[in-house]
UniProtKB/TrEMBL annotation:
Residue span of region Disordered: 250-307
Organism lineage string: Bacteria, Bacillati, Actinomycetota, Actinomycetes, Kitasatosporales
Highest taxon in the source lineage: Bacteria
Protein name per its UniProtKB record: Decarboxylase
Species, as recorded: Streptomyces sirii
Annotated Pro residues bias: 294-307
Compositional bias segments (type: Low complexity): 265-278
Transmembrane regions: none
A Pfam family reported for this protein in Swiss-Prot or TrEMBL: Amdase
Length: 307
């Protein structure tokens, strides 16, 4: 059959993505992307280092970014994003800005990072006090809090797993447990860090339960990259993406006191810093004193529960 009358494929918009070598959630990124946009992913070179501040520095070196950006420019993306939270906050606010400048210089294409996208998203929803969830060790989580502090964001509570590998295997139920433990005090929003931590399906559930906007690393990265080319990200009832969701239950922040017997009275509360122990890790990953370790899920945790 002659299909020449179709005229060929429609012009596509492209988003270039530089990801760390161990990134395993390509499919999750695509879920925020509309059909007329393509993602072009490349990875940083492998280094035999577990997730740590050292790894964050290695995968964000300007020489590494330069090579990755030049490779992506072969397919002419309209914007390039560096999809790694720790790699983009480890150098502080100045380091994140320098990374963006280095990528722009390498490819002459607008560029952004996950951590920069996070600050942009927090400004979009008007959040200045946030709870934080991470899969990281204590030292990496501390570095995230330092970065947020530089940007004028206060961390009201946090929870972390202390993991140094296999972060993409963490089940949704652990993400939910950490979120419940971290959201204490007067938080405007919750941020779930790490582009290798699955979050897409759990965001609407947490927004409904916690009654506040919930942001995740992959979500803000795709939101900011698509916004840069004038395209809205897609996602079911997520406050960052959907103005209707922002006016609904998710718009009600946790700053309101909980009335005994009233809404939210049955939501579990935790101490200001709730750390769950992961698999054996270096001393920097030790859980906070006084918190019982929580075992990391087995290699094959089985089917995920419905959310």
């Amino acid at each position: 059959m002659d299909v020449s009358f179709l005229g060929g494929p429609q012009p596509q918009l492209g988003v270039g993505v530089v990801a760390p070598f161990d990134f395993a959630l390509d499919r999750e990124l695509w879920r925020w992307v509309p059909d007329d946009v393509s993602l072009h992913l490349t990875r940083t070179p492998f280094v035999p280092v577990e997730v740590s501040l050292d790894l964050a520095r290695l995968v964000s070196e300007h020489e590494t970014l330069d090579a990755a950006v030049q490779a992506l420019c072969a397919v002419s993306p309209q914007v390039i994003c560096y999809a790694c939270t720790s790699g983009s906050f480890v150098g502080g606010v100045a380091g994140e800005r320098a990374m963006c400048a280095a990528m722009v210089q390498a490819g002459e294409v607008p560029s952004l990072t996950t951590s920069g996208a996070l600050i942009e998203a927090l400004r979009e929803i008007g959040a200045r006090r946030i709870a934080v969830v991470t899969p990281y060790t204590k030292s990496v989580t501390d570095s995230l809090e330092d970065y947020l502090g530089e940007a004028g964001i206060t961390v009201t509570g946090r929870a972390y797993l202390g993991l140094t590998r296999h972060i993409w295997k963490v089940p949704y139920r652990d993400v939910v447990d950490m979120a419940r433990a971290a959201v204490i005090g007067a938080a405007d929003a919750l941020f779930i860090s790490c582009t290798n931590l699955p979050t897409y399906d759990v965001i609407p559930q947490l927004e409904a339960e916690l009654r506040m906007p919930v942001l995740s690393a992959n979500q803000v990265t795709m939101w900011a990259a698509l916004r840069a080319i004038g395209v809205p990200a897609v996602g079911p009832y997520q406050a960052l993406l959907d103005p209707v969701a922002r006016r609904g239950p998710a718009a009600m922040t946790g700053s309101e006191p909980v009335v005994p017997g009233g809404p939210g009275a049955d939501v579990p509360r935790a101490t200001p810093e709730a750390a769950f122990a992961g698999p054996p890790a270096p001393p920097e990953g030790d859980p906070v004193d006084g918190v019982d370790p929580k075992p990391y899920p087995p290699e094959d945790p089985g089917p995920l529960p419905p959310v």
